[in-house]
Structures are given as C-alpha cells and as structure tokens.
Amino acid sequence: MANFSATDVKELRERTGAGMMDCKRALEEAGGDVEKALVLLRERGLAAAARKAGREAREGTVASYIHPGGRVGVLIEVNCETDFVARTDQFQKLVRDLAMQVAGLAPLYVDIDRIPPGDLEAKQAALLADETVQKKPEHIRPQIVEGQLKKWQAEVCLLEQPFRDTDQSVRELITDAIATIGENIVVRRFSRFELGEEQ
Amino acid sequence: MANFSATDVKELRERTGAGMMDCKRALEEAGGDVEKALVLLRERGLAAAARKAGREAREGTVASYIHPGGRVGVLIEVNCETDFVARTDQFQKLVRDLAMQVAGLAPLYVDIDRIPPGDLEAKQAALLADETVQKKPEHIRPQIVEGQLKKWQAEVCLLEQPFRDTDQSVRELITDAIATIGENIVVRRFSRFELGEEQ
Fold first, then answer.
1. Do B62 and A72 touch (CB under 8 A)?
2. What is the pLDDT of residues B99-119, one digit of tens each?
3. Which residues of A touch B78 (CB under 8 A)?
4. Of A92, A149, B3, B40, which residue is least crowded by CB atoms under 10 Å?
5. pLDDT in tens, B130-164
6. What percent of chain B stands above pLDDT 90?
7. DSSP run (H or E) holding A43
8. What pLDDT does B170 receive?
9. Claim: this prediction has a pTM higher than 0.90
10. Which of B62, B72, B189 sits opposite A70 (nearest CB)?
C-alpha cells in the first residue's frame, strides 16, 4: 500500500533528524514524495521549536574558538535543557559553528533585545548627526534613521546575521537545531577579543 | 682564574634565562657561588623588568582554556612587544598558565586600578552595612572596612592572587617573565564564563 521505500524513510530521517514514525507519516501524507514530506516535517519541526523556545535552558556548554595565529578569539556559552544533549556531537558542532561565526562576522550583541538602551540611543544620535542625513528635509530624517538603525541591528546582532554564506540567518539555524534536537537552545553570551583592538 | 665551570654557567642560564655573558659576570662577582649569582641576576632582571614595564605592548596572543566538561571557559588577551616573542613556547606557556589561573581562581578584574569605581563603592557600602561591622564602635568602622576591602581586592584581582599553590603572586610571575623574556608583558583583559551562572 505504501508508495515509498525504507530508503526514502532513511533519507528523510537523515535529512531532518525526525523520528521514524514521523517520517513515515509525512511520507504517507505526501503520497511518497520525499521533497514534499521534507517540507511537511520542516513546518512541524519549526512549530515544535516555537513551543520549545519558551522552556528553561540551563545546561549546555562553554566553548571557544581561536583563529589560527591567535589574533582573534571567541568564548561562547550556549544553553540547552539537558547535559545529555549538551554532550551530543550535533550540539557541539552547532556551538563550534556559532563560535566561528562570532569570530568571522564580529557581532556585538546576541539579539536585538539584548542591545543596551544606551548603545541604541548613541547609535541613533550618531546616525542623525551624520552629514548626509542632515542634508535631507527635517521631516523625513527620523524615517531615514529608523531604516539605517534596522540595517545596523541586522549587522551587529548574531541571531540576525546570515549564517556563513548561506541564505539562512543564525536564528533560523538555531530554530532548525531546536526542531531536530528537540530541546530549547539559547545563545546566552559571547566574548570576542581581537588582538590590540581599542576597547 | 675563574672559580666556576661551564656547567655552572649552563645551570645559571637554564634557571634564569639570562644571557651567557650576564651569567659569567654574575658568577665572577659572586666568587663562583651559583646561588649568590642567581640572586644577583634576579635583582638585575627585576630592575630591567621595571624599566620595560612602561613600554608599549600591542602584540601578543588571544588564547582560551576550557575546563574538561565544558562548564567553565576562559578567554584571555596577553600583550607583549613583538610577534616574535608572542610565538615563543615560553610566552605561550605563560598565557596558558594565566588562563588556567583565571579558570580556577575566578578573578573579577586584572588589577586593582582596573576595578570600576562603582564596583568599589558598592563593595565598600556592602562591607560597611554588614552586621558584624555595625556592631563595632562607629569610629573604628572605616578602618575595619578598609582592611576588608584590601583583602577583597587581593582575592578578586588576577595580579594580586597567589599563582597556583606557590608563594609567588601572579604579578611576580609576570615580572619574572618580563625579566627572562626581555619584553614588557601585559594582561590586557579576560572573560570567564561558568555554565548557567547569574550575570
């Protein structure tokens, strides 16, 4: 009756990390189309991830990444819910990827809501004071600054940044990990030191 | 004429890191007594270190230490004057030792003059408000608090802490390294993350 093979189920499991029964059900609903089943599972995974995102995460790991040559280094704390998950290769790989992301793209904050109000106001004032903005009519300046501020936030917040050269954001990368790992995952904090930089 | 052997010179070089000629001269002045020559070299080394301590140090390395299990991690930047010294085993070992010190003894600041005034005032107020201090006559309270504040500073400042289980402070360890390496060495900053700690 089933119009899919054990190989299809295996492929789906490998690509999504979802359980055997979930994969079979998705394939049945998708009429045996692996790509369709993948979309179904992904939607469900994200829905499940959204439910998990509120759960307390106090386990996890502290990890580091030092760029070859020792001129840039990153320390990061990523939380999950259990020590068991913290030890898995999948979680450890995610943490390593995040540390390398911080080393390479030098974000200043984890997320937009973690930007200290003082920093935000200072940036806003600096953007408003900029010559090119001051040349514009006064009534449209707030709108311009608002747009520039959003752009700046997307650059300096880890979760808003594109992950490496993919079209996925770091937030989406983590949401996918929550869906496949099945626990809430939170980047708690990071430090990034660059040799001799001004503090 | 010399009342010391090549082996004495070799021993002295290994124990102090000083140059061949400096070792010979110290042995001559000490009448061939290796221990006396060691004291002489040490005094001169510290004097040289004091002269070097003002020099600009903008090279160095960013390094990390993660405690086994991944629950405590440290990122540290230590500066020296040249990239050449930064790559030496001796400098790299010093940096590793310092990172492990931070992991184990959890200092909050590099040095006393790096404690933010606000933190110092808050600690002072907390000590003064303590019940045991409040029970003492008012006129001796500032003196008690002053003593307790000094003790606290010695505990929370990396350079004031005893290095491991030696009777040497971290500051002395670094001064010795400056003397033997021959460049100014400065702990610029560190971050220490402990899994799930309150921030």
1. yes
2. 999 999 999 999 999 999 999
3. none
4. B3
5. 998 899 999 999 999 999 999 999 999 999 999 98
6. 58
7. helix A34-52
8. 95
9. no
10. B62
Question: In this complex, do B195 and A66 lie within 8 Å of one another by their Cβ atoms?
Answer: no
> Quick one: average pLDDT of A44-62?
80
Structure tokens at B60: 């160095």
Are the C-beta atoms of residues B57 and B85 closer than 8 Å to each other? no
Restricting to A residues 39-78, those with a Cβ less than 8 Å away from any Cβ of B are 58-66, 70-77
Task: Dig out the tokens for B150 from the structure.
Answer: 């000094």
Estimate to the nearest angstrom the gap between the alpha carbon of B122 and the chain centroid. Answer: 26
A170 has pLDDT over 90: yes
A79 and B CB contact within 8 Å: yes
Contact A62 B63 (CB under 8 A): no
What is the nearest CA distance from B198 to chain A, expressed in angstroms? 11
Helix (H) or strand (E) holding A60: strand A59-66
Instruction: Write out chain B in H/E/C secondary structure.
Output: CCCCCHHHHHHHHHHHCCCHHHHHHHHHHCCCCHHHHHHHHHHHHHHHHHHHCCCCCCEEEEEEEECCCCCEEEEEEEEECCHHHHCCHHHHHHHHHHHHHHHHHCCCECCHHHCCHHHHHHHHHHHHHCHHHHCCCHHHHHHHHHHHHHHHHHHHEHHHCECCCCCCEHHHHHHHHHHHHCCCCEEEEEEEEECCCCC
Using CA atoms of A40, A46, A51, A55 in order, give the dihedral in degrees to the nearest 10.
Answer: 140
Mean pLDDT of chain B: 90
Residue to substitute from A74, A77, A94, A110, interface B, most B β-carbons within 10 A: A77
Set of chain B residues whose Cβ sits within 8 Å of the Cβ of A76? 193
The ipTM, to two decimals, is 0.76
A and B: number of Cβ contacts within 8 A? 78
Nearest CB among B64, B196, B199 relative to A58 is that of: B196
As to burial, measured by CB atoms within 10 angstroms (0-12 exposed, 13-18 middle, 19+ buried), residue B180 is middle
In one letter, which amino acid is A88?
A: T
Q: Is B73 within 8 Å of A60 when comparing Cβ atoms? A: no
